[in-house]
Design goal:
The chain is α/β, with parallel strands linked by helices and 315 residues long. 42% of the residues lie in helices and 15% in strands. The chain has a domain at 7-172 and 211-242 and 274-291: Rossmann fold (3-Layer(aba) Sandwich), CATH 3.40.50.
């Protein structure tokens, strides 16, 4: 892949897609093919085929997906499965039929079993049941990963995947019901501080452990994978370190400057007890993360405050 390669970034307006787009531009890649959701409906097979026929990209990065937290996944499982399967089929199969040389598909660490040994290697995939609260999304992502692997096996195309851990970064979704845990905590503590609340409540017991990767580190990792001549079919991308949700809440509380109490609503679900990725496989190719969790959260909180002031925050 060189700076003149035409790259289609599906989902470039999302948090991950934006990070990848910015990093590619920093690296001097000028032939970036971008389409908004309004301009190209990725669930529409005919529209995607017409796009491929007209643009003829050499590389496709599949960063587009229907995503959400525990509440959204548990409430709308059919929507999550239908939309993600449609996006994957249209983009991956369409890429093959239109002669795209390389596809990099983004999955999620939630593809791995609920009770997988920790840290999770790539080889634990499909060895035991998934976490029920996000099973529909996970099954759809597994299908996309396997599709890339099988197309590579059967047709000899260089289609491969990356499985990121929990992500955070600029442009995140801060909706209190449908976002992930870190942006939800940032918004909760910020608004509680602004109102002068005496306490902030957090879902669950606070005991689960989660791993968090800044999207800038992810973008570096994805470009690194695209520069490999023979990457693995799929690799985990994370930090190899996790933190208890209780500890994360305390860290966010400190960064935001909230002085009240922290409480936990044990009637709400915790989700998977632990989700830590083994990143040995991608480390062996020469990539490692570099942004610490505290530094990353501080930068994201600053961006969140700026987006609130500008009226552009995703609330």
């Amino acid at each position: 892949m060189n700076a003149k390669t035409k790259i289609f970034i599906a989902g470039h307006q999302g948090m991950v897609g934006r990070a990848v787009t910015d990093k590619l531009r920093e690296r001097g890649f000028s032939e970036l093919c971008l389409r908004t959701r309004q301009a190209l409906d990725l669930t529409d097979r005919a529209a995607v085929d017409a796009f491929y026929a007209a643009e003829r990209p050499g590389v496709v990065i599949v960063a587009a997906a229907k995503v959400g937290g525990i509440h959204a996944n548990a409430t709308f499982p059919a929507d999550f499965m239908r939309d993600n399967l449609a996006i994957e089929l249209n983009l991956i199969d369409g890429a093959y039929r239109h002669g795209v040389e390389r596809v990099l598909f983004l999955g999620s660490s939630c593809i791995y079993p609920r009770e997988a040994p920790q840290p999770m290697t790539e080889d634990v995939l499909l060895t035991s049941p998934l976490e029920k609260t996000n099973e529909a999304y996970a099954l759809a992502k597994i299908a996309g990963l396997k599709m890339c692997s099988y197309y590579r096996q059967q047709y000899g195309v260089l289609y491969h995947s990356a499985m990121p851990t929990n992500l955070y970064g600029p442009g995140d979704n801060y909706h209190l019901q449908n976002s992930h845990v870190l942006p939800a905590l940032l918004r909760k503590f910020h608004e509680a501080r602004e109102r002068g609340d005496a306490e902030v409540g957090v879902w669950g017991t606070g005991s689960p452990r989660r791993e968090f990767l800044h999207t800038e580190d992810l973008a570096e990792g994805l470009i690194h994978l695209l520069e490999l001549e023979n990457p693995p079919d799929w690799v985990n991308i994370g930090t190899g370190e996790d933190i208890q949700i209780r500890e994360l809440a305390q860290l966010v509380k400190k960064i935001v400057g909230f002085s009240g109490d922290l409480t936990f609503d044990t009637s709400k679900p915790d989700g998977t007890p632990r989700k830590l990725l083994d990143i040995s496989r991608i480390r062996a190719t020469g990539w490692s993360p570099r942004i610490s969790l505290e530094d990353g959260i501080r930068a994201v909180y600053k961006e969140f405050c700026e987006s609130l002031a500008a009226g552009t925050a995703r609330l």
